[in-house]
Amino acid sequence: MARNEYYVGPVSGDDSTGDGLAHGTAWKTVSKALSTISKDATDGDRINICDEGTDTLSASLPLSTYGNHTSRFAGLILEGYTSVAGDGGIFHINGGGYASMDESTYDYISFINGKFTNWGVANRCCTLDDFITFLNIEFDGTGGSYRVLGLGTSCRVQGCKIHNMSDTSGLCIYGSSSNHILNNYIQAPANPALRVYDRSVVYGNIFLNSRVSSECVELRNAANASVINNSMICSVAGTGQAIGNYGTGDANSDMAISNNYIEGWSGTGGAGISTEATVSIGQVTNNYYHNCTDVEDIAGEIRYAKKGPTTLANSGLVDWANGDWRPTKDLVGKSETTQFLTTGTTRSVDVGAVQRARGVIGGPNAQAGRLR
Hints:
Blueprint: E1 4-8, H1 30-36, E2 45-50, E3 54-56, E4 76-81, E5 91-94, E6 101-102, E7 109-117, E8 124-127, E9 132-140, E10 147-150, E11 156-158, E12 161-163, E13 173-174, E14 180-182, E15 185-187, E16 194-196, E17 201-203, E18 206-209, E19 215-220, E20 226-228, E21 231-234, E22 241-246, E23 255-258, E24 261-263, E25 271-275, E26 282-285, E27 288-290, E28 294-298, E29 310-311, E30 317-319, E31 324-327
Parallel strand pairs: 1-2, 2-4, 3-5, 4-7, 5-7, 6-8, 7-9, 8-10, 9-11, 9-12, 10-13, 11-14, 12-15, 13-16, 14-17, 15-18, 16-19, 17-20, 18-21, 19-22, 20-23, 21-24, 22-25, 23-26, 24-27, 25-28, 27-29
Antiparallel strand pairs: 30-31
């Protein structure tokens, strides 16, 4: 596949004289690129955004001229670079108080190696539809932002850092069905920080929530969803729950909630896991807790619970308040199952988000949060 390559240089580029076809003739803004490029529906397009400076928006990024992709074999990519496309540079888009991208019907867009700031207080940074990817993206909400993403189905948010969010009783991240939320650092004082629906996978994330009536993961009609190997901290005496499940009947069956570490829901009514479901919810097993009023407030049948909740007298993390999310000996090697392990793993991994996957010769340590 010969994807078309275009270039934006926020400092050295020129929207008047540049043709966007090379680093030396880059456009100055992503808005100019999206208003100029003719969509390639066969091979797709990549806009390479140089990390030499910041692209500050005067309006949300436009997609109406560029158009919408309908095939996973094409799509649009916005990716950071330093001097050569794909070299790992980190772009920076300052929303200027506007939502960076507000196009709820657009699909097949990927954001790779970048940073978003200043998208306004009430706006979402990005509202898009299906088959959207955010890989190694930082969302810095400094300035009052509290909503980050509104997504449709079959989206992926992986290796991202979401932080400096303002307190909200609403959603920080919304995703519909079949989404993958993997190995992110999510610091959001929200209720909830994340809402997902059926067939979604929430794996290997660090959640830090400082809202009293807080929730990290809200499962809505979440049949066949998985919440596995996450670390969830409420830094105040939380009265909500780390994981909440809402709905009844088959729409909430066959979920898997396992190998999570949960701490700090110690206020009145606080719980690690709380569910309203009145039918089988599948697998709830091997979750570890510290400083929670109730650990598992679960209605209905648990189909598989090989190992019930474990309550720790001390925190299971070395020093999360100062950014050290490593597991203590109480969590090391205690994961009960082997979902998502790297090929070649011969030993179990830890409960919680920071996965060392010992036994892989030469393999890197997989850790939640932004890659660089």
